[in-house]
Amino acid sequence: MDAPPALAPYDPPREPLRILHDDHEIVVLDKPAGLLSVPGKGEHLADCLLARVRGEMAEREGVVDLPIRVDWPNRPRQIVAPDGRPAVTRWKRLRAGQGETRVRLFPETGRSHQLRVHMLAIGHPILGDPFYAEGAAREFPRLMLHSESLSIRHPDGGKTLRFASPAPF
User: Fold this and answer.
1) What CATH code is carried by the domain that includes residue 94?
2) Is 85 found in the same domain as 60?
């Protein structure tokens, strides 16, 4: 009896996902052959349709109001959890194209990893995020998160100071 053929290593296709439909309730994707729908067992099988949550956001703006706490076994990762501390992030879509969306984020609270966790929770992890992005979304050369502006009250006198730094990407 012949031995079963050896399985080829998992090498999922790299082309962008084709969105067939996208609205406020559902997203329908044309999954290419060779891409797992959900992650397999082991890190080498993590790239799958479910993990490719980057893309073009349909909504123009929104609010993420989800509590966050530390994921104790996986510190410093944070997770959305009912017993977490309140966390609110407002967001506005600036532009979208080529399978990506540039978003302006307005944190109303200041939890650890709040922007990263909230974007992941709504299905759009920040590109290049080594903690929360998976597959192609993780493969960017850096975390694509940048604070373009900051306003603070100076501790000596309370004068409001504003700083600006355009995104380098």
Assistant:
1) 3.30.2350.10
2) yes
Residue 134 has a pLDDT of 84
Alpha-carbon span 129 to 152, nearest angstrom: 27
Give the separation between CA 59 and CA 27, rounded to whole angstroms.
Answer: 12
36 DSSP β-pair partners: 48
Mean pLDDT of 63-80: 95
- Is 65 within the bounds of a domain? yes
> Quick one: 81 and 137 in the same domain?
yes
Model confidence at 67, in pLDDT bands (50, 70, 90)? very high
Mean pLDDT of the 35-47 span: 84
Structural domains counted in the chain: 2
Contact 143, 130 (CB under 8 A): yes
Residue 159 included in any domain: no
d(Cα 144, Cα 101) in Å, to the nearest integer? 11
Per-residue pLDDT tens for 82-129?
999 999 999 999 998 887 899 999 999 999 999 999 999 888 999 999
Q: Are 121 and 111 in contact (CB under 8 A)?
A: no
Model confidence pTM above 0.85: no
Tell me which residue range forms the domain holding 15: 1-52
Distance CA 58, CA 42 (A): 32
